[in-house]
Specification:
463 residues, five-stranded antiparallel beta sheet, 3 domains, ligase, Uridine Diphospho-n-acetylenolpyruvylglucosamine Reductase, domain 3, cytoplasm, single chain, Rossmann fold, Phenylalanyl-tRNA Synthetase, Chain B, domain 3, Lysidine-tRNA-synth_C, alpha+beta
Length: 463
């Protein structure tokens, strides 16, 4: 066992000389074996060992006795000890989290605090290969995404240093034998036998069968974990190419925006990886609520012919498709409808900050999409600037009859989210003169009298 762990530590560069190692110790066989093993390295590598233990207050006096037991062991082995008691029940009530999650959160908060207090380089945990196999089997059961089945990392950044698991190369039986050989007396947590918790149920009912089929399951699963992680790191590095084609966030809100056409030019594997990198970016971390079903619905949305569509993801994240453009955002804009009177010589400001000015003009020619000129004798003043209404129609120049404003939006591929706030100009009789920036009415320029009305639109982004 010693040789296996030493080789594992060297392979992953888990512990170096002259480091401060904080070890989490519950008093059970796994963590006690870890503390004992670290003691063997203490002189060889000139390590400072700090044992830490947490009483979760869930088993009354028994859990407090376990804390005192670890403190006594640390004293006998001439090690520093820092322990604490936490109120899991109160935290559960306050936050609504489950017992196991609440205990974990409070436990790791304490561990981070200790690492900072002692200047820890390494935080060591006693998880072994059977724990790893349990974790990965549970992950396989819950998810179809390969990147979700990575198990526990051998090491990762933590507080002032890194978190390590030097026993992932060993089985539970290896550790029990180590305790026996070294005459280590440990405590057993009776709650580990309760199958109310999912992990305990897997440990009691699933793992014995799998270990019977393959006694080296723990080794195979650890190697699989390492290879999956290496593969995923490579895929993520390649998926950065996808993210480089996207627009991501501004100072006002978090969002990701991309072209469907460009996105679909990448291989499907990179598309999937990029999608989960986007989720990590927006949520801050990967959340379990986003399942493969959400992923499949999203990819269907990208490939279907609907020009406008929306998808709701967990925790308020929305996916909005507008023709070729897709936006993922937590922002939920309420459409602002408006109606404003516009008199000649005045300028009105619209809700988005843009402006429309009306003035008399000596000439009848307009200049581009954002100017509109009409014969004043064919309109009834004052003008009205408003958002669209059901049934709005406009008479276009050279066209018999009128066309629905809705159809113009579709022809011009205006995103559905923008249509409700798009400004149009009518006269007092309701005649639609101008769908700003899109189409101009032609009926009010027939039989011109020479008295012209000029409108000018200025976007709030114009300089």
């Amino acid at each position: 066992m010693i040789a296996s762990v030493q080789s594992f530590i060297e392979k992953h560069q888990l512990i170096q000389q002259n480091q401060t190692v904080v070890a989490a110790v519950s008093g059970g066989p796994d963590s006690l074996a870890l503390l004992h093993y670290l003691c063997q390295l203490k002189v060889e590598l000139n390590l400072r060992i700090v044992a830490v233990s947490v009483d979760h207050g869930l088993r009354g006096e028994t859990s407090l006795e376990d804390l005192r037991f670890v403190e006594q062991i640390a004293s006998e082995w001439n090690l520093e000890f820092i322990g604490t008691s936490v109120d899991v029940r109160s935290y559960k009530k306050k936050t609504g989290t489950g017992t196991q999650e609440a205990a974990r959160i409070l436990r790791y908060q304490f561990f981070e605090q200790v690492m900072k207090e002692v200047g820890g380089d390494v935080f060591a945990l006693g998880h072994h290969g059977d724990d790893q196999a349990e974790t990965m089997i549970m992950q396989m059961t819950r998810s179809v995404r390969p990147e979700s089945v990575q198990g526990m990392p051998v090491s990762r950044p933590f507080s002032t240093g890194k978190l390590i698991r030097p026993f992932l190369c060993l089985s539970k039986e290896d550790l029990l034998q180590y305790c026996s050989v070294n005459k280590l007396v440990y405590k057993l947590d009776e709650s580990n036998d309760e199958t109310d918790y999912t992990r305990n149920a897997f440990r009691k009912h699933v793992m014995p069968f799998l270990k019977e089929q393959n006694p080296k399951l723990h080794k195979h699963m650890q190697l699989m974990s390492e290879r999956v992680k290496d593969h995923q790191l490579y895929m993520e590095s390649q998926a950065e190419q996808v993210l480089e084609t996207m627009e991501m966030s501004n100072e006002n809100e978090s969002f990701v925006k991309f072209s469907i056409y460009t996105f679909l030019t990448f291989p499907l594997a990179l598309q999937r990886t990029a999608f989960h990198l986007i989720l990590n970016y927006l949520y801050g971390y990967q959340i379990e609520e986003v399942s493969y079903m959400h992923e499949e619905i999203l990819f269907n949305l990208l490939r279907e012919n609907k020009p406008n569509a929306e998808l709701d993801l967990p925790r308020g994240l929305k996916v909005i498709r507008a023709y070729d453009e897709v936006t993922l955002t937590f922002s939920r804009k309420d459409h602002t409808t408006f109606t404003k009177l516009l008199y000649i010589g005045d300028t009105i400001k619209l809700p988005d900050g843009s402006t429309i000015t009306a003035e008399w003009s000596e000439s009848g020619g307009d200049r581009g999409l954002y100017e509109f000129v009409c014969d004043s004798h064919h309109v009834k003043l004052p003008l009205i600037v408003r958002t669209r209404k059901p049934g709005d129609r406009i008479v276009l120049k050279g066209m018999d009859g009128s066309k629905k404003v809705k159809d113009i939006f579709i022809d011009k591929k205006v995103p559905a989210s923008k249509r409700e706030e798009w400004p149009l100009v009518t006269d007092s009789d309701g005649q639609v003169l101008w769908l700003v920036g899109l189409r101009k009415g032609g009926d009010c320029t027939r039989d011109a009298s020479g008295t012209w009305l000029r409108l000018h639109y200025k976007n709030n982004l114009d300089t």
